[in-house]
Amino acid sequence: MKNLKRIGFLAVLMTLVISCACMKDKNTVSGKVESIEFGKDGYTAKINTDKNEVYFAVISIVNVGGPQNYKKLKEGDEVSLKGEIWKTDTEKHIKVKEIVSVK
Q: How far apart are CA 100 and CA 1, in angstroms?
């Protein structure tokens, strides 16, 4: 009986570890910058992914951890961004925490 509980616990633990590892990639958006709209504390970039999904990326100095991590994207840039993703009824958004790459 003890072995059965241990095996069950290990199975649950492994499932949790695997699901957490997979979620890291789900918080990354990669694609081409279609447009930029500047605001008070930063800007919103419209990103079109390879799967033709559109994300509105909110980028500000505070959210990326300071001016040393802040970059101004340009239309046509190929980018990879990490952050918090949320969806409304008609749009997908990402609050950018890290600008991974810009090409």
A: 48
